[in-house]
Amino acid sequence: MFHPLALAWPPVTLGVLCGKSGPRWLSFLAATPTIACSTLGIWVLYRLARAMSWSPAAARAAAFLFAFHWLPLGFGATQFPRPISTCLLLGAFLLLARCEGSIVRAVGAGALAAAATCVRWSEAVMLVPLLAFAFWRSRSVRPPPAVFWAHRSSESGCWTLGRGAGPSSASASSSGSPATRTSAGSTPDPTSGTPG
After folding, report:
1. Of 6, 39, 95, 136, which has fewest CB within 10 angstroms of its CB?
2. How many whole angstroms separate alpha carbon 123 and alpha carbon 85?
3. Exposed/middle/buried for 125, CB within 10 Å: 0-12, 13-18, 19+?
């Protein structure tokens, strides 16, 4: 719920407030976070390659190949969350590539990885490679625990935000679910959200 409520809902709401409420506009507006992250992910990958001491030509080649990979190209203009989580994970690896033992960057990397997990839950498998990368780049035991605890606490915050934010959270909590609002023997009207 983090992706639709925290990332897609704001541009869609802004579009509706500006009078752009047709299905084409709503589909486009819901895809804008994915479009932005898909494009940003290409630049982040270039910066990661440079942080790993790749030559500028090799970093440009990596960015070019990633730009035409099916992930940013195929999903980049859809509402699917994979390019968003990929961009967040690339950002986490970029912070750790420049970590040099910095706890602040390690915490930032853990928070970005947690946000990626909240956008797409299967990205949690990247925590183990991220911890290994943190140790490898820093050659210190300090960053990996910082990454881990930042990931765990940020992930908890993202899930809480995803459950409690959005357009219907206040009305749902104050009036109950449709099942509790119906009286005995009546059926809810699915188009109005009120008992029939």
Report:
1. 136
2. 7
3. exposed
Alpha-carbon separation of residue 168 from 42, 162, 171, 177 (angstroms): 35, 12, 5, 11
Which two structure tokens, joined as six digits, stand for 61?
Answer: 């080649």
Residue located via tokens 């990397």: 109
Q: How far is Cα 56 from Cα 42, in angstroms, rounded to an integer? A: 14
Q: What angle do CA 133, 85, 122 make, to 5 degrees?
A: 80
- Cα–Cα separations (whole angstroms), residue 113 to 11, 127, 128: 23, 7, 11
Neighbours of 129 (CB within 10 A): 13
Burial of 54 (0-12, 13-18, 19+ CB in 10 A): middle
**Amino acid at residue number 168:** S
Task: Please give the structure tokens belonging to residue 42.
Answer: 């290409």
Alpha helices in the chain (DSSP H): 2, 9-17, 23-51, 56-67, 70-75, 82-97, 103-119, 127-138, 143-164, 169-175, 178-181
> What is the full per-residue pLDDT of the chain (196 aa) written as tens digits?
667 777 888 899 999 999 998 889 998 999 999 899 999 999 999 999 999 999 999 999 999 999 998 877 777 777 888 889 999 999 999 999 987 777 888 888 888 888 888 888 778 888 888 888 888 887 776 777 777 777 777 766 665 555 555 444 444 344 443 333 344 444 444 444 444 4
